């Protein structure tokens, strides 16, 4: 296999090619697995401590560490495609519970650990939260029953290796949710069917709405909408309730830019009981659902392929010192190979790739869509900030202080007007930067999508407007048309998302 083919196979291997391939993990006898788990279990506390030590990172790693494998041992595993899935939705919808249940059902958490969590949850008077404790590993999260940091865990189905990113639903932690969603291609939107809970999440100001709009802007191209808590006594697997939620959500998803037929799929589950998750619905529980279960639906998701041969773009979400400088991020275009010479932008520092880690495994190279840790030489960790981009030398990413964008105004604080001089915080891939709108150029008619003739001086909620945006420091971004993941952004102020946008023009001399 030549190198290019091999790189492609990291990304593109289809389900068919994997048929009949036995994953060494699957082939383990139950006995051996139990032993493995007991060993992991006893390491549990140590793992949690090391998580806290690494708390510099915004995300928290949930799965137990695996031994670092040699590149050769990785080949077989890498035949499966890899997808990042972000769990989003209103506070208490059941994101962590569903994420935890997935890990339990895929055999990564054993009964003994669950019993331990049950006891701990009970001691904290949060009996029903024990499944969520698999994902919510911090003391603060367990006491309050709310996710704060994005939880990160891994599991595999027949065709795919998944990284789960469990975002917080509480409105105070939207920036963490943005960071999780910006790393994902697929979203699982968790909605609580419990009486009153769907309504609060869907109301104006509810995070069901905000998360959907943010996810779309941040490049989450496919959504599974799981209608959760179907087991709750106020729902009891009612088809009417499920239909009501689907009916209300559909026009909203459309207006947020999702093609509901192609990119969205609804399904009912109980995250707490694990119903319709790994295996299809038992008819005695719910007679009317004939569709897929969650694992099947995740397996079947097709995402647009990124170009493994494109110029490298890896936005850096975090960095630390460990035998050199290690940067973390997701490859959005191109591939990283051990020994590569690359540029850290915008400060244009030339670096060499010493080692590449995909999840816990050392690999020789990795392609687009992968979450990596890359050890670099030639740079001090103090010269790197979150939001910098590891970039190809031949075609480096643009570094700019100004750009033109098309903005959709969502909801301004106190119904303020949006005009030149408006200041907000810009979130674009892993960049967080103060920005100012310096000029409104055109207002777009949302119906015809054409520019309106009249000169525009200010706009209000709901408007679509083209404007010039300035930042104080150089930032690395791309035009939405060239690299959607690096050209979509949100504007936030005082903890609220006020607008979402796309970069349409960059200054011609930008580097
Ligand atoms: P945040 O992280 O704070 O946004 O919440 P979350 O969406 O992660 O919700 P979490 O998983 O913490 O669950 C919140 C509450 O809902 C807990 O009490 C869960 O037991 C309960 N819950 C979650 N899923 C289900 C379900 O399928 N059925 C029932 N009956 N309760 C559920
Ligand atoms: Mg949670």
Automatic annotation (TrEMBL):
InterPro entries: EFTu-like_2, G_TR_CS, GTP-eEF1A_C, P-loop_NTPase, T_Tr_GTP-bd_dom, TRAFAC_GTPase_members, Transl_B-barrel_sf, Transl_elong_EF1A/Init_IF2_C
Gene3D superfamilies: P-loop containing nucleotide triphosphate hydrolases, Translation factors
Protein name per UniProt: Tr-type G domain-containing protein
Alphabetic keyword roster: GTP-binding, Methylation, Nucleotide-binding
Its biological purpose: This protein promotes the GTP-dependent binding of aminoacyl-tRNA to the A-site of ribosomes during protein biosynthesis.
Segments for region (Disordered): 1-77
Recorded family membership: Belongs to the TRAFAC class translation factor GTPase superfamily. Classic translation factor GTPase family. EF-Tu/EF-1A subfamily.
Residue span, Tr-type G domain: 80-309
The species this protein was found in: Hevea brasiliensis
Entry GO MF terms: GTP binding; GTPase activity
Keyword hit for Nucleotide-binding: yes
Basic and acidic residues: compositionally biased ranges: 25-37, 53-69
Keyword Nucleotidyltransferase recorded: no
Pfam families assigned to the protein according to its UniProt record, in alphabetical order: GTP-eEF1A_C (PF22594), GTP_EFTU (PF00009), GTP_EFTU_D2 (PF03144)
